[in-house]
Design a protein that fits this description.
Length: 377
């Protein structure tokens, strides 16, 4: 295998791969793995004893006890010669061969790096670099972006990552530059709608780099994409604050989840879930055993005995006869499996089999499988 020497060609290949990307879902049928497209038809027939989801146009599959990668046409892109492999990200993947980990590109070429200890997956153009007890950042060119200098670095979200020195937290960008000083006992994950923090016993919201303390708050949850409000707790009750650190919905609920499409699930005193709007008015009565956040298509999972879906008017549009909890994924990639609709389809379980529902509650392709993973490119 050759060393990567032409970064320009590498970037062009990444761009071409993105243009040609096709979303496929890994499914299991008759104990074999294959892939379906968004019509529900098999794009790659079940034929593999072990396989994983696509990422950046390539999927790991096992043949004769060795791992390689196929493309979305089901052809070998990288021959099976590895003992273990991980998903492609930022144009690179980690592979294990002869007891040695390496980063490879889509041609199977090895990236030269100064890594001497533990190898970490690339994510959004960077990978962690560990030296002794400290962590820094590595770029896709194999060069050090940030010398190991932090006790801990959390995964990047929208180009920002929490970092820890001693017992305090701050935040850096992908250049390794501090965007939030390392001076907080707790720090929320980055979101453009807001970031919370704790300094001493005081919980609040960061406005610029100043902490606006939220009166009475003893816990704050991360902001999300769907609203400038997030939920917070005071004296064992949950309400909502805005990104200016002000209570806008008083803490009167037992539990809550994030706003999206102008509605948030909340649990009342009788352990039943309903939905409120951003003014705090009840829009969906407290009648459900559980409830999840609305998806971007305006449908939300709700549970009676089993799970179904309501619209933003509170009407049950898909009957409560499904399971949506993902349980243990057979994939060895630790994907965050989302509940509800993702890009127009919901992954559900029905009568011990898995499949996808469209917004009308119809199973994709009329098919159900032993297992199914989310669609991915």
């Amino acid at each position: 295998m050759k060393t990567i020497i032409n970064l320009t060609v590498f970037i062009l290949l990444m761009g071409l791969s993105t243009v040609c990307a096709q979303e496929l879902a890994l499914v299991r049928e008759n104990d074999l793995f294959g892939y379906i497209d968004k019509s529900g038809a098999f794009a790659i027939e079940p034929q593999f004893e072990k396989a994983d989801s696509f990422s950046e146009g390539y999927a790991p599959v096992l043949q004769d006890d060795k791992w390689g990668y196929i493309n979305t046409s089901g052809e070998w892109a990288i021959q099976p010669e590895y003992d273990r492999v991980k998903a492609f990200n930022s144009g690179l993947a980690l592979v294990l061969k002869d007891d040695k980990w390496d980063y490879i590109n889509a041609k199977g070429e090895v990236l030269e790096t100064p890594v001497t200890e533990k190898y970490y997956d690339f994510q959004d153009g960077v990978a962690f670099l560990r030296k002794e007890s400290l962590v820094g950042l590595l770029g896709t060119d194999g060069k050090v972006i940030l010398e190991p200098s932090y006790k801990e670095i959390k995964p990047f979200i929208d180009g920002h990552a929490k970092v820890k020195k001693g017992d305090l937290w701050g935040m850096i960008d992908k250049k390794g530059e501090l965007v939030i000083p390392v001076e907080y006992q707790e720090l929320g994950t980055y979101n453009k709608n807001g970031v919370w923090a704790r300094k001493g016993d005081a919980f609040g919201v960061l406005i610029g780099n100043e902490l606006k303390v939220v009166d009475g708050a003893d816990k704050i949850w991360d902001f999300s994409e769907g609203s400038t409000l997030t939920y917070a707790r005071s004296d064992k009750q949950v309400g909502f604050i805005n990104n200016q650190g002000e209570w806008v919905i008083e803490p009167t609920y037992k539990a809550a989840r994030a706003f999206n499409k102008g509605l948030a699930p909340v649990r009342g005193k009788k352990k039943k879930w309903g939905y409120i709007n951003e003014e705090g008015n009840v829009v969906v009565d407290f009648v459900y055993k559980d409830a999840e956040v609305f998806s971007d298509n305006g449908l939300a999972p709700v549970k009676e005995k089993d799970w179904g879906f309501i619209n933003t008017s509170g009407e049950l549009v898909i009957p409560t006869e499904y399971a949506i909890s993902v349980g243990f994924s057979f994939s060895f990639f630790d994907y965050l499996q989302q509940k509800g609709f993702v890009n127009g389809l919901a992954r559900v379980k029905y009568k011990k089999q898995w499949g996808f529902l469209d917004k009308n509650g119809q199973p994709l392709g009329g098919k159900w499988f032993q297992n199914a993973e989310l669609f991915a490119e």
